[in-house]
Design goal:
5-stranded mixed β-sheet, about 20% helix, alpha+beta, about 525 residues, flat, 10 helices, 8-stranded mixed β-sheet
């Protein structure tokens, strides 16, 4: 029987390979599962010619003889739209390790965690303002403590409670319904897929935004060297939290051990004189690489009119030697006078490497920013931040349906700003030679439910030094005191603007436009 031949076009090659792997033989392969990954590799065969060692099996598949390094693997012959032929070897899915649960007769996960829950053990996580106290099996508390010579002030919220009755009920549930692998939830933590045990704490302090008691999901994951420490705390929705705890206790249960990578390799080798990789695939990868480089240039303001061109092509052995010589020579040569003057005239020899590059910034962007029309946004968690220069600072969360929860942190009022500078003289701008940032004070925000005063925020405009991330904009928010914030704004385009700030840290748009700032 002749080998089955499949014909495909390169743009759909990866999709086709995936379909072949998943459905070629349902007896041998698992059904669709997005946690099972397949990696396509291209290799030159170690034996010549490859086609001569291929033998057909009775069911239409193929195996290879002892002379082939892929012995025992099922294979398919593939043909591209350009007529290139490849033999692709599918991974052996039958070599999966047996389910360890067949031999496990030990305690269920709750019983493994019971010593920790009954010892009244607490774990702590300290952040810039808040401290979190997780007493396992009892409660999660968020608090901030201030002390002075006369008094001690404590601000605290309970994010959820748990008790012995709930723990025993969960233990009984595991005993009545023996755990199976499909019942254990998984989640990714630092690119690792980890099984976890979830404990739901509820009945916490009532949330002033939702009017409901705060609640927390405590997620315990196996970590052999762990000491039950808090790995992360996140507010996943309004007054609903998620805590990840690293514990060695669960590691004794086979279903809670870290999941090994299930990536399988599909190896394709050319038949006869065909290239190692399909030509159309190499062209597609080259176009993708070229597009990425063009996007990088455009992000630095270097468009098609900048005089910089990029060529992506495959290198042969001689090209590689020339490239090494070119780079070595370029590093050892000093820039010529003509290059330092702007590159006018004809320069012989290999191109020089410029010591620094200064990236231009759109003057319209600067103008709109100083007018407060171009706002900056930051934040990656539940809350995000909006900063409109000279106007306002907001903290907000946007739901999937477009509805927003907004907390106004402050608006710019020049009179309040100048009074703040009088009371805090250290906040005035430093001399130009030492200046890296300027501060401005925004007041009159939403009333704080704790202090019963309006929120306020100090905005620190910082210069981001030249480098690959100069055009990136970073925003971060701190709360050093109750409802008193510090917003850090760091960007490359702020560097010349900071130098233009007056003795009060204010940047006058008209002065900037007159000097035609050009980064």
């Amino acid at each position: 029987m002749s080998s089955p031949v499949m014909k495909f076009s390169i743009p759909f090659f990866f999709h086709l390979i995936y379909v072949v792997v998943c459905f070629y033989d349902l007896k041998e392969f698992y059904p669709f599962d997005d946690t099972r990954l397949y990696k396509l590799t291209w290799e030159k065969p170690d034996i010549e010619p490859l086609a001569e060692v291929v033998e057909n099996t009775q069911d239409g598949g193929e195996t290879v003889s002892d002379a082939n390094p892929y012995e025992g693997l099922e294979s398919l012959k593939m043909k591209t739209a350009n007529g290139e032929e490849y033999l692709c070897y599918l991974p052996n899915e039958t070599e999966e390790k047996k389910d360890e649960m067949l031999e496990y007769t030990g305690p269920n996960p709750i019983q493994l965690m019971m010593p920790l829950m009954s010892l009244l053990t607490c774990s702590y996580k300290i952040e810039s303002y808040w401290t979190y106290e997780l007493c396992h099996g009892r409660h999660l508390r968020q608090y901030h403590e201030e002390r002075d010579a006369k008094k001690q002030k404590l601000q605290e919220y309970f994010l959820g409670y748990y008790d012995k009755d709930k723990l025993e009920a969960l233990d009984k549930q595991f005993e009545e319904n023996p755990l199976k692998a499909k019942d254990v939830p998984l989640r990714k933590i630092d690119s690792l897929t980890l099984p976890y045990l979830e404990i739901k704490m509820d009945g916490g302090t009532v949330c002033d935004l939702s009017g409901k008691p705060r609640s927390t999901k405590v997620i315990y994951v196996c970590h052999p060297p762990g000491k039950h420490e808090i790995y992360s705390i996140e507010e996943v929705s309004t007054c609903e939290y998620e805590v990840v705890v690293l514990t060695p206790s669960l590691c004794k249960h086979p279903l809670y051990k870290p999941v090994e990578s299930s990536e399988k390799k599909i190896t394709c080798t050319p038949i006869g004189e065909n290239p190692k990789r399909p030509v159309a695939l190499m062209e597609l990868e080259s176009e993708s690489l070229l597009l990425r480089h063009q996007n990088i240039l455009e992000s630095f303001g270097l468009g098609s009119d900048s005089g910089i061109q990029i060529e992506v092509r495959a290198l042969g052995p001689k090209d590689s030697e020339n490239l090494v010589t070119l780079l070595t020579t370029a590093k050892s040569r000093e820039p010529t006078e003509k290059q330092l003057e702007g590159g006018k005239g004809e320069v012989s020899g290999p191109p020089e490497i410029a010591p620094t590059v200064q990236y231009p910034v759109d003057e319209k962007l600067i103008e709109d920013f100083l007018k407060g029309d171009y706002c900056l946004y930051g934040g990656t968690g539940w809350w995000r931040y909006e900063f409109c220069y000279g106007k306002k600072v907001n903290q907000f969360h946007e739901e999937g349906d477009g509805t927003k929860t907004v907390i106004h942190l402050g608006s710019f009022n020049r009179e309040n700003h100048l009074k703040w500078l009088q009371d805090h003289t250290n906040k005035r701008p430093k001399p130009h030679s030492e200046r890296k940032q300027v501060s401005q004070y925004y007041t009159g925000g939403s009333v704080c439910d704790i202090t019963k005063k309006s929120r306020s925020v100090e905005v620190k405009l910082k210069c981001k030094e030249p480098g690959l991330t100069q055009n990136a904009i970073s925003l971060y928010l701190l709360e050093p005191h109750e409802c008193e914030y510090v917003l850090g704004v760091e960007a490359g385009f702020l560097c010349p603007l900071i130098q233009e700030a007056d003795e009060n840290g204010e940047i006058d748009l008209q002065n900037v436009l007159k000097k035609r700032v050009n980064l």
